[in-house]
Amino acid sequence: MRRRLLAWFTRRPEAEAWALLGPGTFWMLVFFVVPVIVMCAYSFMPRGTYGGVDPGFTLEAYTRFLHPVYLVILERTFVIAVLTTAFCVLAGYPVAYAITRSGKWRTLLLFLVVLPFWTSFLVRTFAMIFLMRDTGLINTWLIGLRVIRQPIEMLYTPFAVFAGLVYGYLPFLILPVYSSLEKIDPSLLEAAEVLGAKPAARFWRVTLPLSAPGLIAGSLLVFIPALGSFLTSDLLGGAKGLLVGNLIQNQFSTARNWPFGSAASLILMTLVLVAALIYLRVGRE
Amino acid sequence: MHRRELLRRTIALGILSACRRLQDTLTPEQRTAADATEAAEPLGPVEKRLSIYNWSDYVAPDTISNFEKEFGVKVTYDVYESNEEMLAKLLTGATGYDLVFPSSYAVSVLKAVGIASPIHRQYLTNWGNIAPLFLDPPFDQGNAHTVPWQWGVTGLAFRSDKVDAPDSWAVLQDSRYRGKMTQMDDGRDVVGSWLRYRGHSLNSEDPAELARAEADAIAAKKNLKAYISAPVKGQLISGDVWIAQLWNGDATQAKVEQPNIGYVVPKEGCTIWEDSLVIPRSAPHKRAAHEFMNYILRPDVQATISDFTGYGTPNSAALKLMQHPVPYPTADELRRLELQIDLGRDTAVWDQIWTEIKSA
Amino acid sequence: MPRWVVAFTAIVLFLMHLPVLVLVAFSFNASKFSVSWTGFTLHWYQRLLEREDILAALRASLIVGVSATVIATACGTLIALALARHRFRGRTLYEGLVYVPIVTPEIVTGISLLILFVFLRVPLGLLTITIAHVAFSISFVVVVVLARLAGMDETLEEAAMTLGADEVTAFWKITVPLLWPGIISAALLTFILSFDDFVITSFVAGSGSSTLPLIIYSMVRRNVEPSINAISTLIVIGTSIMLYVAEKLTREDTRAST
Fold it and tell me: What is the residue range of C110's domain?
């Protein structure tokens, strides 16, 4: 029986491939693709009074998004995501570089970088709250050391949201960059040295370009979640500012405007995919 | 051609059938009649489990465990922070809850969508304890779907050792206390407070009034530390926050840990709210739910709960037993206090305003 | 390597760990308010054991985590095998599409699944959470296992088959053992992603089906007391142990096969 089945499959390599792909593809189709299609359909329907949708077709959800308040939210989210990515690159690249040159400390350092990566995002965000409160550790220390007399308002400011995002996503940048840097053939750098290039030139002309793939992958891994984040702004921002993520979440809880929430989700998803495609295209050149 | 047409019809039908969910299928008259018939029918024996979905910090520490012991029922207890959170869960198909505790306008929403199940009064032997003032509320005539739970107001809690007692919503625009004040993370409460500040109803749908309230709210936002609801208690206690828009009972609870906390109803007025127990239509343990309702209608149980939470009780028999009873509002006070009603389709307008305030 | 790079790295790594270290330290603080150190105590850890809701949430998280890991790892490994070893129509397109769930923001995934469950009138509960977790994890498994497969030598399997083993035997006796570290890494990744997931779970959880992150979130928002520090510390320790074990397994195996 088994032999017959195998023989049947061997003659049809494509069928074998699809047998393997089957279960996973089915799951992703039903629980990923179909929901997005339904969400797409909902975005074109009029909203029900108490949530959900009524039958019909309308572009109301999309035209509503053109209202300045929502465009401002989109712009603000975009700016925060770009700033977060830039800062992560500035802070993370040197760390990744240092790890490649660390010799016997390499495993330990990698572990130290990977650990926050694996620790719950929620736990780490709470740790930030803990540190930054008016009666939190930083203020208590600074007041104790008499550096300041009144507590600095750190929590519930845009700075807190920004710091929370950088803190949360920094490991996502360090690891891919490290991975890329590690693969660089040291003989290339030796050759450059032999040809008379100074250390700075060696870095800018050899190391950096060769680490570009990792840099791009890492930037994407920071930019995309930052664009869709809402937890950080919710917990660290004092609910005073709205990012696109908060806006979307609102539509499905307090505002009960599902079509608008769906439209906003699709717009966000499109932006993310476009950003990813641009990044990859730029990276390949 | 035939197959594609079939596919298209099936999809359309599917979407249509899904759409009609979030609106009651019967007209209000049909619903009232159907509910009356259902309310008269008997329910089965008391089930062994009960699932409660309540506000945080809204029962005494031993209320649930005592109920479990006396009736042999296992209780699952989930909490929420706002009516919207609870409504969002119920309206999107969370079907496991047996009891929820909506405020006035939330009851209207539940009824409009057909989710509120009729109360079988025959099981509530302690019904007579409820003060007449709280029977037959405007949002549920005849108490067909609700049992009164607790009531309260949404005014200002403050640290009496850090600030003078405020008397008006205007204190939130006072830059002396910049960064030390909060308002609730709730559009209706924030916009409502500024509507009252200008002497308007906090259920207003007038665009001019709403625009003025929005401007006021944004002017106050500069001085606010955050929009935060019940969790601000911890910050009042620790001194991070000096003035907070908060419910009176939560302020009383915070006072236990920090005696220097005062409470005031601003002179322009504020929200008075009544919470009720409601059984969702999809509740799997309706009989146990009724048993719980009857249990909390007992004077001693209700007195313990209200003494702990600091809220007002609609139970006149319990009032006599309480150590710190919250007196019923006088006629003069009632003039300043207003109940929130459901805005229906205007919720969208209010939501737009709240979004603009938040992203200002 | 320039001196400033070393110093900079030290500062960044310190800052990366400071918040969690402080969190862990104050989980042992006797005072409820965590403003100053008033003494060492295990009181908050004891309180965790008393809280029925936390224990129930832990149980839920474990059930969902294990189920989702098993299903996602199985499905994902099969997909990775198909992508690496077989040619079929639409392969490049499929390869690209596999990455879409990874780049999709969590909130979009969560909301679209909520819409689907409401549409199909599926009651929300542990089942819907598990389904959601598998849906977003499969892509991660594919990526990890593919990376491992890329470095694997096919000649061993071919050798086994020339010696008379059929495809299935070759698969179980050669491919799987060689692939094992990759599968384990993928499984661990899936488990941790599932255990820590908050955003997607918050949308598809029903009554009484709170997972640990949901409970922690409500604790953070409501009453901030050191029990949160305690449970966070336990999570950090648990994650570290799992990471360490994974690292050991992977390293041992590579050493064994060389």
Answer: 42-257
Phi, psi dihedral angles at B263 (to 5 degrees): -145, 140
Domain ranges across chain B? 29-146+278-326, 152-272+337-358
Average pLDDT score, chain A: 85
Same fold: B29-146+278-326 with B152-272+337-358? yes
Q: Which is higher by pLDDT, B105 or C153?
A: B105
pLDDT for res A240: 82
Q: How many domains does chain C have?
A: 2
State mean pLDDT over C99-104.
Answer: 84
CA quadruple A53, A55, A60, A65: dihedral, nearest 10: 30
Q: For chain A, list residues whose CB is within 8 angstroms of any CB belonging to chain B.
A: 41, 45, 47-55, 67, 69-70, 72-73, 76, 133-135, 153, 156, 238-242, 246-247, 250, 252-257
Put simply, the answer to whether C142 touches A24 (Cβ < 8 Å) is: yes
Homologous superfamily of domain range B152-272+337-358? Periplasmic binding protein-like II (3.40.190.10)
Beta-carbon separation of B88 and A47 below 8 A: no
What CATH code would you report for B29-146+278-326?
A: 3.40.190.10
Residue B151's DSSP bridge partners are B274, B312
Which residue is it, tokens 């944004």? B218
Percentage above 70 pLDDT, chain A: 98
* CA separation for the pair B31, B111 (Å, rounded): 9
pLDDT band at residue A202 using 50, 70 and 90 as cut-offs: confident
**Adjacent-strand bridge partners of B49:** B74
Superfamily of domain A67-284: MetI-like (1.10.3720.10)
State whether the Cα torsion C153-C158-C159-C161 is positive or negative: positive
The neighbours of chain A, by the rule of 3 or more Cβ pairs under 8 Å, are B, C
Largest CA distance in chain A: 83
CB atoms B56 and C222 under 8 Å: yes
Question: Residues C158-183: what's their mean pLDDT?
Answer: 79
Alpha carbon distances (Å) from A110 to A115, A211, B190, C240: 8, 18, 48, 13
- Which residue did the predictor score with more confidence, A53 or A271? A271
| Whether residues C90 and C209 fall in one domain | yes
Q: How confident is the model over B155-209, as pLDDT tens digits?
A: 999 999 999 999 999 999 999 999 899 999 889 999 999 999 999 999 999 999 9
Residue A238, chain C, CB below 8 Å: the answer is: no
pLDDT above 90: residue C70:
yes
Whether C181 and C148 have beta carbons less than 8 Å apart is answered as yes
pLDDT at B20 > cutoff 50: no
Smallest Cα distance from B291 to chain C, Å: 20
The answer, yes or no, to whether residue C254 has pLDDT greater than 60, is no
- Residue A174 CA to its chain's centroid (Å): 13
- On whether the CB atoms of residues C69 and C187 are closer than 8 A, the answer is yes
Q: Is the pLDDT of residue A208 over 90?
A: no
